[in-house]
Design goal:
Subcellular location (chain B): Cell membrane
Membrane topology (chain B): Multi-pass membrane protein
Oligomer: heterodimer
Largest interface: A-B, 32 and 24 residues
Structural class of chain B: mainly alpha
Helix content of chain A: 40-55%
Organism (chain B): Mesorhizobium mediterraneum
Structural class of chain A: alpha/beta
Protein name (chain B): Sugar ABC transporter permease
Largest sheet of chain B: none
Shape of chain A: globular
Largest sheet of chain A: 5 strands, mixed
Keywords (chain B): Cell membrane, Membrane, Transmembrane, Transmembrane helix, Transport
Shape of chain B: globular
Strand order of the largest sheet of chain A: 2-1-3-10-4
Chain lengths: ~450, ~300
């Protein structure tokens, strides 16, 4: 009898187990993103969705340098491994024109997301082509390049006195690019193993270009006319030449071996007492206020990218929108997830977990702005951001810019004018090749 | 022809008991290999040749258009591509010459009766057993200007091995030399131990100097096997990707395979990258042919 009972229970258990696994298989979603802290926060967020809806959502990640290659390899193979992707803002042209992303225009309009999300995030993460009213992503992780600095170095009375004596004004958060340069020069003391500034220089993806964009946009320059594809006279304008020269000058105040640095190195510049100021995406700032990852957490301050000589103040946009992949077998389930994701409560929770929400209401709330030392700078920055080209051939444009700018910044080759003239010619040839200009 | 050189099947073997003929067994071994080669090597090779004459992009659903020799023409007129080839050539020369000098030198030192010779040889082989990516990652730490052990040991202060555009390629080559000299050493050691001892005895009786003995006896006899090592290392150095990609991103270290990777998988210019891959293939074939001809000459001597 006992034996019969045991086998019956085992049988029921087996049936249940099989049943559950079939059920779970039907209700599973996979989101693909790069390997960084916000992806972990997103996993925590989607766990709440699983608790509510019973749908298991997994955030799958890959290191940043491989993210683009891996995502597009999967798209091009029409693979259904991922249901959604939190893709980079400049992918949107390539992915939408090739049919990799599901058109979310109806969803966008139905939920009035143009008003719900911050304007810059709608413009750069969701809409393609520019001003077309066609939307491909839901703004998910807002991001831009900002700055961190060593408050203890800046507030040291001896340093303040010496700075004022040398430059004739008070040492403080840089009010413009000129002050940024002066402070970098002031703290650049190789003999003491202290350096002025940490900037992006890695040319393997978009790091160096984002850094240079910070200077170009604040100097009042543009990369080109995104509507007409005109580049000559725009990318090689007078302002851009000055901006590139300013960025090159900043490079001379970086720590030694700073020719391949991106977000890890730039945060290390603060944690390892290397530099007075460091450029980085806001997404990497949570690690800087955490005592466990930054022994100088208490002494670290933050500021938005400063204005250029004419008072223009902009910053390079990072961040990503979440898109549904056309080859997913679970598109309906993915849309349900997005409906949950855009709710104000979810966006609030997302911000609390450490994600940078793009929800205008949450961003504007004092609760959000006072939550961390850098949220206010983030809020200010998100309303004055500009981005790189989002055309399908953006990768070629990016590599051409790296090829021209990198040897000038790190290797002293050519002049800023020559570099940007050559870049204008390269970009023009590329746009001609794809019949964007005649 | 093939059946004529085959040995007959042992009548007591299991295969014979199953009634398999020599021909069946030959086919069992050869056909899968040939199928594998056709599917994974020959077919993609021919297929990509076709793509190299088109403007195909794997990232786009648009159909490929035939563009004739445009890809080849534009690539061969691109100054950046020529600079990539020049960098690759410089890297191959520095790296292979370095490996031959170090590898052959160590082989000469080991080609004598010394205690723990076996253990020493095994330990010296360790670098080439490591993965390229791992070697790249830890040499990056060794080269670090702030805390790297190389600058500390050599007293170079904060010398920038990888950030200095003029030095970076040599830094990558040094890492490659460290990793692959053992390979040259191993082959040279095999060649050296095959040199008949009586030749050295005869040279000693004739009072030949060590310089003369080396250039007239050792080198000519080891040359064929050394040439094989050089062919392998040249082909590998020409294709180098991992080390240069991991260690540095200087334009002065952008060897041709890195440019090819970027063109194929970042820019998604599939047609053009196929053309570039063919140009590289033709170059490697040409260089290898020159080496093989020279090797045959050396063997004839």
């Amino acid at each position: 009898m006992r034996k019969t009972m045991t086998s019956m229970l085992a049988g029921i258990g087996l049936v249940l187990a099989c049943g559950t696994s079939v059920y779970a298989q039907d209700k599973e979603l996979t989101i693909f993103w790069a390997e960084w802290d916000p992806a972990n926060y997103l996993q925590e967020l989607v766990n709440l969705y699983e608790a509510e809806s019973g749908v298991k959502v997994t955030v799958e990640t890959t290191p940043w340098p491989d993210f683009q290659t891996k995502a597009f390899t999967e798209f091009n193979a029409k693979g259904s491994a991922y249901d959604m992707v939190v893709g980079d803002s400049q992918w949107i042209g390539a992915a939408s024109e090739a049919g990799h992303y599901v058109d979310l225009t109806d969803f966008f309009n139905k939920h009035n997301l143009k008003e719900v999300m911050a304007p810059a995030t709608v413009k750069y993460y969701a809409e393609y082509p520019s001003n077309s009213g066609k939307y491909w992503s839901i703004p998910a992780e807002g991001d831009a390049v900002g700055w961190s600095y060593r408050k203890d170095w800046f507030e040291d009375p001896k340093e303040m006195e010496a700075f004022k004596a040398k430059y004739g004004y008070d040492l403080g958060v840089p009010k413009d690019f000129k002050a940024l340069r002066d402070i970098a020069e002031f703290f650049h003391r190789p003999d003491e193993k202290r350096y002025g500034v940490a900037i992006y220089t890695d040319n393997s993806y978009d790091a160096l270009v984002m850094g240079v964009e910070n200077a170009i946009f604040s100097f009042g320059g543009e990369l080109g006319d995104y509507a007409t594809y005109k580049v000559d006279g725009v990318i090689n304008s007078e302002q851009n030449v000055k901006a590139l020269e300013a960025y090159k000058e900043l490079y001379s105040f970086t720590p030694p071996g700073w020719a391949k640095s991106f977000f890890i190195e730039d945060n290390q510049a603060i944690t390892e007492n290397l530099a007075a100021m460091s450029m980085n995406y806001f997404a990497f700032f949570p690690a800087l206020i955490n005592e466990a990852s930054n022994p100088n957490a208490e002494a670290t301050g933050f500021f938005a990218n400063p204005p250029g000589p004419n008072g223009d103040q902009f910053a390079a946009l990072g961040g990503q929108g979440i898109s549904v992949i056309s080859y997913s077998q679970n598109q309906e389930e993915a849309m349900k997830f997005l409906e949950w994701f855009i709710k104000e409560d979810t966006q609030k929770k997302w911000a609390e977990l450490g994600g940078y929400t793009a929800s205008a209401k949450v961003l504007e709330s004092p609760e959000f702005q006072n939550a961390t030392p850098y949220n206010k700078a983030f809020y200010e920055t998100m309303f004055k951001v500009k981005d790189f080209w989002a055309t399908p051939e953006y990768a070629e444009l990016l590599i051409q810019m790296n090829q021209r700018v990198y040897p000038y910044i790190t290797g002293n080759q050519g002049t800023a004018k020559e570099v940007l003239d050559s870049l204008a010619a390269d970009w023009n040839a590329t746009f001609k090749k794809y019949n964007r200009v005649k | 022809m093939a059946t004529a050189v085959m040995t007959t099947l042992d009548p007591n073997s299991r295969s014979a008991a199953r009634g398999m003929s020599d021909l069946t067994i030959r086919n069992l071994f050869i056909i899968p290999t040939i199928v594998f080669l056709i599917v994974f090597n020959i077919f993609p090779l021919i297929y990509s040749l076709g793509y190299s004459f088109t403007d195909f992009r794997a990232s786009s659903p648009a159909a490929a258009n035939f563009v004739g020799l445009q890809n080849y023409r534009e690539l061969l007129n691109d100054p950046f591509i020529w600079s990539n080839f020049a960098i690759t050539a410089k890297y191959v020369i520095v790296s292979v010459v370095g490996q031959v000098i170090v590898g052959f030198g160590v082989a000469l030192l080991l080609n004598r009766d010394i205690p723990l010779k076996g253990l020493l040889t095994t330990l010296l082989l360790l670098p080439m057993m490591l993965s390229m990516a791992v070697v790249g990652l830890f040499w990056k730490l060794l080269y670090d200007p702030s805390f790297g052990i190389i600058n500390y040991t050599l007293g170079l202060g904060s010398f920038e091995w990888l950030s200095n555009p003029d030095m970076a390629l040599y830094a990558v080559a040094i890492t490659d030399i460290w990793m692959w000299s053992p390979f040259v050493m191993l082959l040279s050691l095999a060649g050296l131990s095959a040199v008949p001892k009586h030749l050295y005895e005869a040279a000693a009786i004739d009072r030949a100097g060590s310089f003369y003995t080396f250039f007239r006896i050792t080198l000519p006899l080891v040359a064929p096997i050394l040439m094989i090592a050089i062919i392998f290392r040249t082909m590998e150095a020409f294709k180098t990707f991992d080390l240069a990609y991991i260690l540095t991103s200087q334009p002065t270290t952008e060897v041709i395979s890195i440019r090819l990777y970027k063109m194929a998988f970042q820019e998604w210019q599939t047609g053009r990258s196929c053309a570039l891959a063919y140009i590289v293939l033709i170059m490697i074939l040409a260089i290898t042919n020159i080496y093989v001809k020279y090797l045959n000459k050396v063997k004839e001597r």
